Amino acid sequence: MAKQLKKGDEVSWDTSQGKTEGRVVKKQTSSTKIKGHTVKASAAQPQYIVESDKSGKRAAHKPDELRKI
């Protein structure tokens, strides 16, 4: 069963610089663009838009890449 996260949930994820923490901004269920990259999300395979606490930048991640903290 896929993870169910909601807006405002505190999460962490791995980056090339190490572990990063932030908050879920929204659940993305349609294709969109972030920082020039296409996010291929759908209702069947949603992604979560997260905002880094450290940098304030936003990124999209698949549910399996996020850990609720």
UniProtKB/TrEMBL annotation:
Basic and acidic residues bias locations: 1-10, 51-69
Stretches the record annotates as Disordered: 1-69
Segments forming domain Hypervirulence associated protein TUDOR: 8-66
Gene3D superfamilies documented for this protein: 2.30.30.1060
Pfam families: Hva1_TUDOR (PF11160)
Coiled coil: none
InterPro entries in UniProt: Hva1_TUDOR
Protein name according to UniProt: Hypervirulence associated protein TUDOR domain-containing protein
The species this protein was found in: Rhizobium leguminosarum bv. trifolii
